[in-house]
Structure formats: C-alpha cells, structure tokens
Amino acid sequence: MMALVASAVCVSATATDLTDRLGRLPDVDRVKALSSADGLEKIVCFVNQQLDWDDAAEGTFGQRVIIKHRGFDCPTVMVTEGYGAAYALSPAYQEELSTLLEANLVFVEHRYFLESTPQPCDWKHLTVENSAGDYHHIRNLLREIYPGKWFTTGISKGGQTTMFYRTFYPDDVDGSVSYVAPLNKSLEDGRHEPFINEAGTPEVRARIKEFQLEVLKRREAIEPMFADYCARKGYTFRVPISEIYDLAVLEYSFAFWQWGDDVNQIPALAATDSAYYKHLIDKCEPSYFAQQTPYTSFNVQAMREIGYYGYETEPFEEYLSVPHAEGYMRRVMIPDSLTYIEFDTNLYERVNAFLEEEDCPMMFIYGEYDPWSATGVTWLEGKKKMHVFVEPGGSHKARIGTMPEDTQKKIMKILRRWAR
User: Fold this and answer.
1) Nearest-angstrom CA–CA distance, 12 and 74
2) CATH level 3 topology of 15-184+345-419
3) Of 19, 33, 108, 246, whose Cβ has the fewest other Cβ atoms within 10 Å?
C-alpha cells in the first residue's frame, strides 16, 4: 500500500480536549474511550437522531459513532457503514481511506443495526433518505471540531450508502470513495445472472455448475446432513428445508465469484457426500435464509428500495424441489408482517439521474468478477471529477491497495488533489 503524506500539519490533542469538545456538542452523549493498536485516540459515543427527518414529532434514537482522532486540523473521513459497527470497536481496526489521507475517522453505524436500532422498532423509518439525514446531522455536528476537508467512504452496502448520501447532500463533503457498491433497479435486478454466466473462464464456470448439479443430484444423501446442521444451529425457516437446500445451491455461484474463491477447493466428482456437504455449508451457510438471520434490516431495505439479485434456475430445474426461485426474498427472508412492502424505484431513478447529470469528486472501486459489479456504477463516461477503477480479476474484496501498481498511482494522484 502506498502512503499519502497529508498536506496539512495536524494538531493533536489530549483525550480530555476531544472528550470535552464532544461533550459540549448538542445531541452527543455516552462518550467512552476505546483502545487502539496504533496509539491514536479512539472513542465511541452516541448521537441523538430523528427517526424521521421530515417530522421531529416521530421521535428519536441513539446512533453509535466511533471516532479515531489524529488532529483537529486533519482532514476527516466518515465511514457510512451499511450494517453494524461492532467490528470497528476492535483495537486493531484500520480503514483504508483514512489511513491513506492521514485523516480523522468518524465511523457511523447504520440506523436499525445493532446498537443503533430504535426502540420500539418501527420499520417505516428505515429509508435511505432518513439514513442520509443521519450522516448530514453528524457532519454538521462535528464540523465545529473538525473544520478541515471531509470525505466519505463505505464498502458494499456501505458503498451504496456513500453514494446515496452524496446524492441527497452533494455539498456536504469534498470527496467520496465508494467500494464495490451496486445500484440496483429492482428487487431481483436481472443483470447479475448473465454476468455470472460470463465471469472467469469457461472451465471455471463449468466446475461451479458441475458442483451445483452434483449437490442436487445427491440430495437424498446430503439434504439430511444439511437439515441436521440447521437443527443443531437452531435455525428455523419460513419455507420447507428442501427449498432452503435449493436456495443454498443456487447461491453458490454468486458466493464463489463474490469472494474470489479458489476453483481447486471444489470437490471432485469422485469426492464423498460428506465432502460435498461440508463445502456447501462452508460457502453458503444457511443462516442467510433463517428467521434468526442478523440481516433482517438489510432485507427490509432491499425489498423497499435498494434492490437485490435473483437466481438462474433453468439449468437445475430437473432437480429442484420448487419450480422457480422468483420472489424468494419476500417468501423466505422477510418477516410475515412486512411482506406488504412493495419495491419503490424512486431511489434508483434519483441516484442514476444524479450520477448522469452531476460531476462531483467521487471514486468507485470494483472487482472485475464480483457479481455486484453487474449493477455497479461502471458506466460513467466523460466525467472529470468522477472516476471508476476495476481490479482485473478482482472480487468483492477489491480495494485501492489491491489494484495494480499503476492504477494505485492514478488513484493516489486523485486523492492528493482532493486533499489539497
């Protein structure tokens, strides 16, 4: 990873300085010191946020924010996390953009995840527009402490959130880096399946399909192992276990390309039923479809406005327990009380129009074989301030530091220009 020397000399502070400044801000409370392996000051606090940014009478909730402090005159990177923030509490946690920019880090847990879940949990307030309002409020609160340049970044759903926040509040920050972020136009977008059918080499694709077919053909032997595993884990499902088995098999090709798996790990045709079962569980853990999933908030957002992907079933129809997988998220992954929600295309249309019409400092990072790149913002042309970089052969793990060296140099040149 190349290092970027910040253009400004940062002014450091004692823990008391930062804590006192935060304590004087409205809507900030529960400030607590955390450990950081790199020696930088790190704290966690909660920011009081409106449930509905158009109607204060709807009430408030506390949103968890983690701050890693370099200096009051340093630039600041805000991570628009799409999920929970628990992993950022680790003393060893490092974030790429704030490290490259030698910047303060403001890590924001997404509303309706972990410690930032309103009580009671009324799903009607879980909208992209409201979450954008959360980041806008935090940006305005911390402007007094960190008056320098501000940047946003996020990975996957967090990368979507970076893109959405910039759309709703284009002048809030000086630059945005969005990693592996899709822009889906419907609940089952339809672009992912043909993308997967063209990813990699024909030989690798054939091995993947061979594995999927073999697991289905061996259903009589493997499904009982699969069902026993789910029972031992305490998983319950909204549909029969046979359909969950089907979905896990259909998910396999998406998961393989998303995470850049090694084709040599796929069991050979002569391998045992146990080997096939273990490989399937390892790559497609069925908690994803269980009622105990930690991703209910994500699933609600996907169904409401951020979209998702479908499955190609035609090559496997002979061996599936259901005729097709259409509508699987609504049927399998959404609580019964929320199945009334219909997908709204307004968000896609607004963000797509913003990206087509505007040209503000934004960077999009993708992996060539990541299925999420099928709906990524890889189509931008003729822009001077918006940039797209695709890692050759890359997956959902694509980052600035995984790019070829010449691409890293181009990216660093852009970041230096933004940081001036």
Assistant:
1) 9
2) Rossmann fold (3.40.50)
3) 33
| Kind and range of the H or E run holding 186 | none
The reply to whether omega before 182 is within 30° of 0 (cis) is: no
**pLDDT for res 12:** 56
Residue 132 tokens read as 């954008």
CA Rg value for the chain: 22
Query: Could you tell me the CA-to-CA distances from 113 to 126, 263, 328, 331, 359 in Å, in that order?
Result: 10, 34, 23, 22, 32
pLDDT band of 8, cuts 50, 70, 90: very low
Contact assessment for residue 328 and residue 302, using Cβ atoms and an 8 Å cutoff: no
Instruction: Assign 17 a pLDDT band (cuts: 50, 70, 90).
Output: confident
Rounded distance, CA 185 to CA 190, Å?
A: 9
Domain boundaries, the chain: 15-184+345-419, 192-338
Phi–psi pair at 121, nearest 5 degrees = -90, 95
**In sequence order, what DSSP letters do the residues of 227-276 get, joined into one string?**
HHHHHHHT---SS-HHHHHHHHHHHHHHHHHHTT--GGGSPPTTS-HHHH
The token duo for 180 is 């592996």
